[in-house]
Amino acid sequence: VDPCDQANRGPASGQRAINCLADGIPAGFTDPLTARFTGVVAGNPNLEEETAETYTIGFVLRPRFFEGFVATVDYWNIELNNAIAAISAQNIVDACYDAPNLQNQFCTLFTRNRQAGSPTFLGFNFLRQQDVNFARQEVSGVDFAFRYSFDTDRFGAFGFSVGGSYLEKRSNFEFFGDPTRENPEKFELNNPEWVL
Fold it and tell me: Do 70 and 146 form a contact (C-beta atoms < 8 A)?
């Protein structure tokens, strides 16, 4: 879907409409339905390294009065910035025109047919999908393990243990139009609150 199509561009004073005009797409433009055009899915030599702020604190408890018992508890907190993520073709073109201006990393990933008189004039004619730096992730929780072992004269050594994790928070900030918008993932598939 072309974000500069009149049906998708929003109010004339909106950022998308302003950027569409700045890109030479006139008001009233109708997408010439260029759904079939060339493109590539490729690597990105301009990726920057992800950065993270992390901290952990933990302890190991071996009480003298309860021989053979060991408890470990670790709290962890990670904030990943400048995260590398793949984005869809639709999100690429939307992010280009929804940005404050056209000088952004998304507008360089596609081209339009600029040949006047062509049946697909101003329609998309190439798109490059690649990983980009734009996301952020915050995750925190607690890992724990409890172990009890003992020896018997008759049957040898026995041991019992249980361990798991508590997920305090897991959120992605993956909306390029609003980097402060949170997408909480706790309780979603593969992100339960408790794992034993």
Answer: yes
User: How many alpha carbons fall within 13 Å on the CB side of residue 179?
Assistant: 9
- CB atoms inside a 10 Å sphere around CB 31: 19
In whole angstroms, give the CA distance from residue 140 to residue 55.
Answer: 10
Instruction: Supply φ then ψ for residue 5, to 5 degrees.
Output: -60, 140
65: left (phi over 0), alpha (psi -120 to 50) or beta: alpha
Instruction: Give the three-class secondary structure for 96.
Output: helix
Predicted structure pTM score: 0.67
- The residue ranges of the chain whose pLDDT is under 50 are none
pLDDT at 35: 65
SS3 (DSSP) at 97 = helix
Assigned token pair, 32: 């010439």
DSSP annotation string for 58-92: EEEE--TTSTTEEEEEEEEEEEEEEEEEE--HHHH
pLDDT value for 170: 95
Q: Rounded CA gap, 17 and 97, in Å?
A: 8
Unique residue bearing structure tokens 């700045």: 22
Sign of the CA dihedral running 101, 111, 16, 116 = positive
Distance CA 11, CA 17 (A): 7
Q: How far apart are CA 185 and CA 192, in angstroms?
A: 9
